[in-house]
DNA sequence: CTGAAAGCGCTAACAA
DNA sequence: TTGTTAGCGCTTTCAG
């Protein structure tokens, strides 16, 4: 592997000058620059990030942790991050927590060992002990949280307005003349699901209509049991005419259940999900949903991080993105 | 950030001894080891991989490139890789090519700059110029290809037996009494799709039955047009009673199309996909498919790489995994 | 605009 | 079993 040294030798320049060429330093004459670049080309020179990182304290690496990579939402975010970071000279490395606190901490640790310059993190469902995260914050290593944001003051974060999303979804059902709504609630230990719960309740309350009924059903963590619970609920309460599912996947399961029960969607029951997953557009009927603007979220998070990286004293930023109602066949 | 130096100072030991403790060298007395470990704990010491990498020439990083991370198959592979690598001391970094030769090369380049010790690569659909890859092979940097393997001799690779998968899928349709089969063909520039094509043809040929008909339809790259093409085909040839789609996603589109045309699945037409995507189990009817053993593939690829990393002179390995027929509602 | 030289944090001979 | 020391490839003062 050719290094800066060989280039120096060939061109008859010093290490310093050669180094400067690759660091866009303006303190180099065009002629020398050209000479160096040419030599670099010939030798197929690849700068050694490790060495540069060691010396300069800047690894040019950004670490990203998501719960799961095989997820429409998170991979959309990753794409947004990639897009934003691509021309900045930074490399990104991706790790998955698989919704486990332990794996999340492991990933954070290996980021620290790799001396990443900044971290983008969406915390796992399981994460309750924030000590590791607080340590990182204290160490001044720039970190931006997205979507799943820990309950801490003074952090950089990008979130979806989940309250608003649930509010919009519920409102949409009400606009479609639904009178008896069910909200299938996600794990309320996670703040975003709590927000959606509030949005659902408030949307109904705001109508101030005694004829409207809104109920919530909390699931176990076992899918089969959950489907059983929902099935029972639907049988017990035949007046249900609108369902707001906390996610598209559970929405799809509900859709299948409704078909099994010979309940017509949207005629008898209208169904709306959350997330705008890719498959929600492939079902029959296509499922109405709330789009989470994932690419934008990734871009924003990365953008805040890059700004902080440029100017460490940049103020902390919290960005709240607005969701978007996507009306499809299942509600009209 | 505390370093090895501070630990040496506190414990009164030399740098070398402290270093040895973290490298599992047995040349350290238990007492000193304990002392060092304790000090490390107190100082919250994180070894600096960069420095170690620079000195030892071993970055402890493995680079993984997949076409797309938001894909059931590839994320399954990533999980397999993570599993296999987790206790080896290596870190993995993931990059996406988004099916672009250019991005693939960019990723490869940043891997080289990061001095990864090994590469796991599934080449993009677009990749035709193999010079970059050949350069890497020549440089002796260990690389293992998986699933999408370039047409080169003397490489490490893990593949699915795509021929066999297609053969099994087609055979299954024939076993279900289908007489007029259609194969919706993937981009035959990619070798795996060519293999599936062969498997389809051979399965029919082997029956040696004049009453059997097998046709292939090659798609454009535009989904809407493609659906139109398939629609036309179905109308032109009402005797079609079995469809083998090269992937589950296109299979789902076909399923929706068939519903639109009021053709019953599996009664009138039996449909089988390829890939065992998560959603193929969520449709109605559930789609029969071929499982690609993605986790296993990731494990195998990582395992070959780790072996090569341990023993650079290890012989080149090619592993072919057997696919698995998954029979669901759409074919019975 | 260019060069000399120190040193980032760690590992690996070699010596003791 | 431990210590001494050189140096991985690069950046960055400081001095020309």
From TrEMBL, chains A, B:
Keywords: DNA-binding, Transcription, Transcription regulation. One of its GO terms (molecular function) is transcription cis-regulatory region binding. Pfam families: LacI (PF00356), Peripla_BP_3 (PF13377). It comes from the Bacteria. Coiled coil: none annotated. Residues 2-56 form the HTH lacI-type domain. This is LacI family transcriptional regulator. The lineage of its organism: Bacteria, Pseudomonadati, Bacteroidota, Flavobacteriia, Flavobacteriales.
